[in-house]
Design goal:
This protein is α+β, with helices and mostly antiparallel strands. The chain has helices spanning about 15-35, 40-65, 65-100, 105-155, 160-170, 175-195, 205-220, 245-255, 290-295, 300-310, 340-345; strands spanning about 200, 225-230, 240, 265-275, 275-285, 315-320, 325-335. It folds into two domains: about 5-145, no CATH class; about 155-345, 2-Layer Sandwich (Heat Shock Protein 90), CATH 3.30.565. It is elongated and about 100 Å long. The two termini are about 15 Å apart.
């Protein structure tokens, strides 16, 4: 099993440690309030120190043992992690009680250790169960996202395929070089549609795929299709889900250019705002009757919006602006590179 497939979070990461510390402090408050004392603040301080020693020691041990736990699988990792936390609780309880009050009878010290173990057993069991349920939820979301990507990959419109093949066939006799280039563009598009749905691709790959798609459409639509690219400000190594840009370009052609006798211009603009990248696709708006006959474009947009959120988090989004004459779809992407992904997996 890979480390990223383990249901336990990475306790080497500061966010995981912070979450554990805050949870431990809440437990310390509850334990203090459950056992009233004459000096509430002193009692809270001692209990907090005791709980945080257990929490931080457990986090450090689980961090070091993460690679080994991953090899045991989720069930084995849960059992071993549970045992390790209880072992640390017993050791810290024994040492803490000895340091604070060496004159205490052995029976009382053992009772304190047993109570600490009982509390740790309950809290750890609940925490591990919660982490497993969250992990299962994320796995289901990932599987649903993969299914959505596969559905999107399979939705290349048949009319586009047939039109492209007919166009290529008609060019073979008088423009063999253009026909060969069109075949290569078509092959690139279908290669992308057959790729692994859970991987991320670079913006450069998506742009080249989109350029190839529009070149094929230009062979069929001729002067009716004009394209304006303004993406010089975008870093081409940024990562995003595959088939993010091409479906938007396909919608722009299908709903904006094809229905118009005069055709129109598809504009692709990009700019950077700090660590956020903006990518906008613009196309002329067909009349309402034509749009209704051709169906809505919301399925692909909803698909892309969901995949962006799952792959890149809440900072990624898809925005739509419809002025009546022009239709715009804007992608907002956090700037993430392959180096960032490799760092997150460690």
């Amino acid at each position: 099993m890979r480390k990223q497939d383990l249901f336990l979070p990475d306790f080497c990461h500061i966010r995981s440690v912070f979450a554990l510390v805050m949870t431990g402090q809440l437990l310390a408050f509850v334990l203090t309030l459950a056992a009233p004392s004459d000096d509430l603040w002193q009692s809270l301080s001692l209990i907090s120190l005791f709980v945080q020693w257990i929490v931080l020691s457990s986090a450090a041990l689980l961090c070091v043992a993460r690679g080994w736990l991953a090899r045991l699988g989720n069930a084995g990792a849960a059992v071993v992690s549970y045992a390790l936390v209880l072992l640390i609780t017993a050791v810290v309880s024994e040492l803490g009680y000895r340091l604070l009050d060496q004159a205490t009878p052995v029976e009382l010290r053992h009772g304190f250790v047993l109570r600490s173990l009982a509390i740790a057993a309950i809290v750890t069991a609940v925490t591990l169960r919660y982490l497993y349920v969250v992990h299962e939820g994320r796995q289901r979301m990932a599987m649903e996202a993969a299914a959505r990507i596969e559905a999107l990959q399979a939705r290349i419109r048949p009319h586009f395929l047939f039109n492209s093949l007919n166009t290529i066939a008609s060019m073979i006799s008088y423009a063999p070089a253009k026909a060969e280039a069109a075949v290569e563009d078509l092959a690139d598009l279908f290669r992308a549609s057959l790729g692994k749905p859970d991987r991320l691709v670079t913006l450069d790959q998506e742009i080249k795929l989109g350029e190839g798609y529009l070149r094929m459409e230009a062979l069929r639509l001729g002067e009716r299709l004009a394209v304006e690219w303004r993406l010089d400000d975008l870093p081409r190594d940024a990562l995003l889900p595959p088939l993010t840009l091409q479906p938007l370009l396909e919608n722009a052609v299908y709903y904006g250019i094809e229905p118009s006798v005069r055709g129109g211009v598809i504009g692709i603009d990009g700019w950077r705002d700090g660590q956020l990248l903006h990518l906008r696709v613009r196309n002329p708006r067909a009349d309402a009757a034509t749009s209704a006959r051709r169906g809505g474009s919301g399925m692909a947009q909803d698909n892309i919006r969901q995949r962006l959120g799952l792959a890149l988090g809440t900072r990624a989004s898809l925005r739509i602006k419809d002025s009546g004459e022009e239709y715009q779809v804007e992608l907002v992407l956090p700037y993430r590179t392959t180096a960032d992904e490799d760092s997150n997996r460690r």
